[in-house]
Design goal:
The protein has helices at about 1-45, 60-70, 80-85, 95-100, 115, 125-135, 150-160, 175-180, 185-190, 215-225, 225-230, 255-265, 295-310, and strands at about 55, 110, 140, 170-175, 200-205, 205-210, 245-250, 270, 275-280, 325-330. The protein is α/β, with parallel strands linked by helices. The longest helix has about 45 residues, at about 1-45. It starts with a helix and ends in a 15-residue tail after the last strand.
Length: about 350
């Protein structure tokens, strides 16, 4: 009887242990599921996180076809419709001052991004138009919003093969151009899925130019599924070590949230100002806490050097006179990189 009682007690103890383990497993699974649902909801319904987390964009075939028909065939943008609305027959920004001078040779040509273009200013207020009125001669503004210096260089090279350059050529620089130079797909930085561009990149000991992505909708879907396979010059691939690169989204979503938290923490620093200490992000062109990557600086130096070489040869072009070139740094913040200027 005693032995039977002990056996019954032992069986009851084993059942209780199994029940306890099963209960803990159920609790862990429940908590994990709750964490996954919460993490997924945060990633799905927090628009502020879209810049930091990569999810393949949803683009219809019709929208993709419309983009392919409208885009610039070499540079990506400005698009054909934009040029029709906002540019003259040369492709320069509409300028009331230039209209008074007519179809004559320009005295100044301007290249660069939105700072060159004069974003948020009317055609009358744009600085290139004001400069034309001050100088009393035509100033052609070829600046385009969102351009990297690489795109500006390529547009400059296209134009000087079409018509004699101006006596003075201005190229504007802005720190974020360092980022744009080595980015092929703007979606990885701005979440605009239909915005591809050419980009220079380092391949061993040589510098190469990856042309504008050119593919049908199936090819586009392949890019969204695996950007690294199709974009050789892209630096900000999902999961890349750069501070600007998005993290990969996927199951387990709680791990995605943890990776995102680490990425955001890494992207902050304590900045000692003149008066007090503040908590600041690293500058946008930083890849690590130590600054821009070597490749980013190498590509920027190559682009500037190539622009300088082209400028030095302008006077040898048919119909060209003696020309001078100016690189204008548009950054006035204390956190800007060292000023880069060149005159020739």
């Amino acid at each position: 009887m005693v032995q039977q009682a002990y056996r019954l007690q032992g069986s009851a103890t084993r059942v209780m242990k199994k029940s306890t383990i099963a209960g803990w497993l159920i609790l862990v699974i429940f908590l994990f599921g709750l964490a996954e649902i919460g993490s997924y909801a945060v990633l799905k319904f927090t628009p502020q996180l879209k810049t930091y987390v990569y999810t393949p964009p949803e683009v219809s075939e019709d929208a993709d076809s419309a983009y392919l028909a409208d885009r610039h065939p070499v540079l990506g943008w400005s698009t054909a419709n934009t040029l029709k609305k906002n540019a003259d027959e040369r492709g320069a920004r509409l300028s009331p001052a230039n209209e008074t001078f007519g179809d004559i040779a320009s005295c100044v040509d301007v290249y660069g991004d939105s700072f060159a273009f004069g974003a948020e200013a009317t055609d009358e207020q744009a600085w290139a138009n004001v400069l034309a009125k001050q100088l009393g001669c035509r100033v052609d503004n070829y600046g385009v919003g969102g351009y990297g210096v690489g795109q500006a260089l390529l547009r400059f090279e296209q134009n000087i093969n079409k018509r004699p350059p101006a006596n003075t050529v201005i190229l504007t620089l802005y720190p974020d151009n360092l980022v744009r130079n080595i980015n092929q797909w703007r979606y990885l930085l701005t979440r605009n899925p239909l915005a591809f561009k050419p980009a220079f990149y380092v391949d061993g000991e040589t510098m190469k130019l990856a042309p504008l992505f050119d593919g049908d909708h199936d090819a586009f879907l392949a890019v969204t599924a695996d950007p690294a396979m199709h974009l050789p010059a892209e630096t900000y691939l999902p999961g890349a070590p750069s501070l600007r690169a998005p993290v990969k989204a996927g199951f387990p979503y709680s791990l995605t949230i943890a990776s995102l938290a680490l990425k955001l923490i890494e992207g902050f620093r304590v900045y000692d100002g003149d008066v007090r200490s503040n908590f600041y992000n690293h500058p946008s062109y930083y890849d690590t806490a130590d600054g821009p990557s070597d490749e980013k600086k190498q590509v920027a130096r190559y682009i500037i050097s190539r622009f300088a070489e082209k400028c030095s040869d302008l006077s040898s072009l048919p119909g060209a006179s003696s020309s001078s070139c100016l690189i204008l740094n548009c950054c006035i913040s204390k956190r800007c990189p060292a000023r880069m200027t060149w005159r020739g």
